[in-house]
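Intended use. Records like the one below are meant for learning the mapping from a protein sequence to its folded structure. Do not use them to infer anything beyond what is encoded.
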Amino acid sequence: MAPVHRPAASAPRARREDERLPAPRPSRTPQEVPPKQAGPRPRDPESKLSALESRVLAFEARWWRATGAKTQAISDELELTPERYYQHLARLIDHPEAAAQQPAVVRRLRAARDERRAAR
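Structure written out for the chain above:
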């Protein structure tokens, strides 16, 4: 049986003359940079959930065997720190749209919060 030929690691191919590099993005001067806002804006409690809020609720609906796995997944999947994740979650459980979207999760989280408050 003849040995199998495997291609070597692909080297960067040379650019043809008809291929162009993408145009560089214009840089912004400090005056053009919009000011950063100090956190999320308060919103109407009847408004719809944002995409991030929906992802946070769906993420919380999953079950985890180990805390470390959940913490790592928060960083990997949602690109949030665990602290920011739980801050979002704490605000979400009082949102009526969240209760409509994931009622079991919201009930479980509200019950856990009420137990913590009663233990104080």
